[in-house]
Amino acid sequence: MDFDHYTREDFIADESFQNWVWQAQPHNVAFWDAWVAAHPEKQATVEAARQWILGLQLRETMPSEAEIDDSLTALRARLAAAPLSTTPMLPTPRPFWRQHALKIAASLLLLLGALAVVWFYGAQWQRETLATRFGETRKILLPDRSVVVLNANSRLSYASDWSDEGNREVWLEGEAYFTVKQEPRPDGFRKFVVHTSDLDVEVIGTQFNVTNRRARTQVVLQEGKVRLDLKTEQTAPVEMRPGDLVEYSLVSKQLRQRRVEPELYTSWKDDRLIVKDKSIREIASLIEETYGLSVVIQDSALARLEIRGTFSLADLDQLTRELAIAAEIRITREGDRLVFQP
């Protein structure tokens, strides 16, 4: 299907796109994450459709008198055009309910449709959703005093009626750094759970980074203790210790765990990009996800080139200047795309 020519209305009507908005089906989420990332030129249209779905409002469920009269007129016209029966029929009085059966049926059908919409979307209306634009980060203070730094092009939601009982739960699309406050209880500590499209991150009190983009979820633990529960595999929970990176791919169904320097993955929250032997291709992908631009690398050897350094994320122009100097390349901007040249 040619999604490149989709209008806002096309996206709204597409069931797989709706599932992506509501994070309902992992394979739909994976597909649309990748498609949206690969088509930054459609960002405005996609966002307009997403906001329309999230802000869905029920219209008046009862038809107007004029609409009912129009339907009755059309029905009478069709009956008049039908062949007449030759069998004589005796006139019989019609009860009141029969005279108004069409009106009653139309109203009931519309009412049932409205109830179905409420049932399907009701849970979503009960969430608070906070989002960031391309190139923007945002610090969020949750009701339990835990702190979240939300990276660019990301969304975080939690229950509107956040309770002091039960688990603390949030839902993440994109990337965020969490500093979770410990809440002791008589039976232990109150859990904090971060839900992504393919796994749950369960913690007590800790600092960690979660990235959920392009059909891939990555968790880096800076301090404390974390347990990961995969949603799509019958796999035992994964226990993490500080300095661990765990990455799960929804496409390959592979789970990888290794030791890393957490600062390389969390420095973005301080408007810095720290890289050690990271390729230009990997940096280009980060720019696309953070700033919503497409990046063209005009040489395959350049794409594999690895660099080191610390760069500013506060300003895109400054970032590209610093990268160009470090890699000894030319970076030019052409509208909504960046071109990397040897």
Structure notes:
The chain crosses the membrane at residues 104-122. The protein has helices at 8-13, 15-22, 26-38, 43-54, 65-81, 96-99, 101-125, 263-266, 280-291, 300-304, 316-327, and strands at residues 127-131, 138-141, 147-150, 155-159, 168-179, 184-185, 188-189, 192-195, 199-203, 207-213, 216-223, 226-230, 238-240, 244-249, 255-259, 272-279, 294-297, 306-312, 330-334, 337-341. The chain has 342 residues and is of the alpha+beta class. The protein has three domains: 3-54, no CATH class; 127-261, Jelly Rolls, CATH 2.60.120.1440; 271-341, Phage tail protein beta-alpha-beta fold (3-Layer(bab) Sandwich). Strands 1, 2, 3, 4, 5, 8, 9, 10, 11, 12, 13, 14 and 15 form a 13-stranded mixed β-sheet that branches. Strands 17-20-19 form a three-stranded mixed β-sheet. Strand 12 (226-230) and strand 13 (238-240) form a beta hairpin. Helix 2 (15-22) packs across helix 3. It is globular, with a radius of gyration of 27 Å. The two termini are 36 Å apart.
Would you spell out the secondary-structure blueprint of this structure?
Elements (H helix, E strand, L loop, with lengths): L7 H6 L1 H8 L3 H13 L4 H12 L10 H17 L14 H4 L1 H25 L1 E5 L6 E4 L5 E4 L4 E5 L8 E12 L4 E2 L2 E2 L2 E4 L3 E5 L3 E7 L2 E8 L2 E5 L7 E3 L3 E6 L5 E5 L3 H4 L5 E8 H12 L2 E4 L2 H5 L1 E7 L3 H12 L2 E5 L2 E5 L1
Parallel strand pairs: 5-8, 17-20
Antiparallel strand pairs: 1-4, 2-3, 3-5, 4-5, 5-10, 6-7, 8-9, 9-12, 10-11, 11-14, 12-13, 14-15, 16-18, 19-20
Helix pairs in contact: 2-3
